[in-house]
Fold each of these.
Amino acid sequence: MLDFSSPMHLILIVLVIVLLFGGKKIPELMKGIGQGMKEFKKASQLDDEPVKKEPETKDTEIKTSDKK
């Protein structure tokens, strides 16, 4: 299994990421990941809220008078 306890491992991973994506793409990549996490968090919080039932309304007729 991978063990990332050594700082050298983290430096190596960051170097590989920079080589693969380039210096200009990394901020865009991080921004996209951050927005995705924010949307996921927002959606999961909405799922936790209890669903409010709308009060049942009786079908009543509203009679209007014809005014001339």
Amino acid sequence: MPETREQAESFTILCRRCDRPIIARAAWVGWEVQCPHCFSILRVPEVPADGRPVQADAPNLSARLCFNFACPRCDCLLESHTGMCGQLAICPTCAARFNVPYLRGKSGRPDKAVLIEGEAGYPTPVHAYGASGHRAPQIIRRDDGTSVIECPRCNAHNPIDADTCGACGAPFTMEAAATVGKMYRDRRASSSVTLGVVALILFFTIIPGLLATWQGLRSVMNTESSRRPVLGFIGLGMGVLSLAGGIAYWYWQLK
């Protein structure tokens, strides 16, 4: 009787601790898995040529480095560690499938995650965790006819138009979900405020005012969202005010 495709892609490994058999897939070679019997961590060995059960390898005991990267579909901020690099992962927000990126040797920064071939780039669910099944925010209708959002993390009830849980801060919508783009915009907004304060003190030098204005513009010029960072507007305003003061100062000095 010929082997099925699933049988050809799977083989048996033996746990190093309890010696019980575990069914593994050929695609898992080199991955670290957990024994379903004794819950010890094992590394999947190479597929044996003779098809016999083979003992699992010892797990990698080297220190693992945690890092953040962006989902290639919805841009949500995700966290992983070096022990998962190259493994298949699923975004908890939009259910996109991708391989966890590797870290670059010199810079230590992660490569850009790439969607698995065949995965559509869009659309993205409107609600954060909208693709997480029972873990997604649930809309509950009360006896009086009003509706509330039940948080999947703490079960607290929130107004139907809430973007985040008022009790634990879990995001309900993509507007509230942490994304890499939002993180960069927040950094620019904070730096624009810092530069704006310096520019107001050193308004006659002009340069800090130009930098504060530039960083403020970069933080508020976001076409992907209707929400603009307040700090970005504050930094932009201080930069423009500093530039106006610097121009007036030099005008009267050179007059």
Amino acid sequence: MISVFDSRQFNENLFFPRPDPIPGPPGCEEIYVEVEEKINVHCRRHPSPQARFSLLFFHGNGEVVSDYDDIVGAFAGLGAETIVCDYRGYGKSGGAPSLRNALEDAKVIYRYLRDNGQLRSDVCVMGRSLGAAPAIELCSKFSEISSCIIESGYADPVPLVERRGLRIDQTTPEEDALFNNSLKIKKVQCPLLIMHGEDDFLISPEEAKLNYSQAGSKEKTLIILQGVGHNDMMMAENGGYFSGMKRFFESMNSIDE
């Protein structure tokens, strides 16, 4: 029997792909990674000569790489050289998106960038909302990754399915191994920052707390930002979004000052 996570109804209600005709800003690098024969996924790298580490970023399910063109400057101010990744069917990418493909493609993308000199020696993998899933997948599989940031990410896949209007009584061990972030995050050993909005009504802050409690990282931080929800994290008072990340990076031994 087909897994609900591989069903058309689930994935069509999970992903909201759209074209992305906006050209990248001057100096950016467009990267196309072949994730399957004749299917390329688009990533955009924003070089920063002064960067101390690479930030490999997986965005939310209604976003595209150009949505971050005006934000990478703030990441650069934290010491990051940012690479933003799309999913199949998004922007300039081919194919059709599914959660399984997003997880498997993330590993192909990471290996390609690593093996072709597109990543610095220190790499932080960050995932926002749906992007938390490929971020946790990578950090659970590649021990050389320096750090991980999860923003507004889900924990338990059952509520994820129910938010798509489907019903599921339980998940199989095979489904949990791939789709259950709160179980998979036990294998994440690198320094970890989890950020969530206190007023997030799409993914409860309780899911952030579950991921935090389950995480295998010895160095881990949970920040629940007050007054913001799922899609306005950067609007947190007193610059809490970027200041939280700044403190996280400054505390890490693996990224030199």
